[in-house]
Design a protein that fits this description.
Blueprint: E1 3-12, H1 18-35, E2 38-43, E3 47-55, H2 56-67, E4 72-82, E5 94-96, H3 106-109, H4 122-136
Parallel strand pairs: 2-5
Antiparallel strand pairs: 1-3, 1-4, 2-3
């Protein structure tokens, strides 16, 4: 089975309130587990940064659904690559709420400390997610 890693950024729409955000997580965790997809969702009050890992067909279908989801706009692919080992294999959909993003970590990846995933290269987005997970593993919502 061909495995891929996909990282994208998007802007939240008005349709994505707190209730909708938790519905996304609930649906993602159930669907991803069934489709052998794992990943992490980083949430900021304005943006999503998400990594999806798993079978190519399942990841592609999920990304197509995200592109058509009215809770997202400006969905932008940052990375799409074949993968060996999963980076975020511990979670069907781990959740990094904005409150746990380290203020001293953001300046490494964001000008002026303001989080904007659209300003990140593929390498920076992947490194940011890995570093946040490494420093905040216990705080990630499962």
């Amino acid at each position: 089975m061909h495995q891929v890693r996909l990282i994208y950024a998007s802007v939240m729409t008005e349709a994505c309130d707190t209730e909708a955000l938790f519905e996304i997580l609930k649906e993602s965790r159930a669907n991803n587990a069934a489709n052998k997809v794992t990943g992490i969702l980083c949430y900021d009050p304005a943006y999503f940064l998400q990594c999806l890992e798993g079978p190519r067909e399942a990841v592609n279908a999920l990304y197509a659904a995200i592109n058509n989801d009215p809770r997202h706009k400006n969905v932008t692919l940052l990375e799409y690559a074949d993968m060996g080992d999963r980076i975020f294999g511990d979670w069907s959909m781990g959740f990094l709420p904005s409150g746990i993003l380290e203020k001293d970590l953001l300046p490494k990846y964001a000008d002026g400390g303001a989080f904007n995933p659209f300003a990140l290269s593929a390498e920076q987005a992947r490194a940011f997610l890995i570093e946040v997970v490494e420093t905040k593993r216990e705080d990630i919502k499962k």
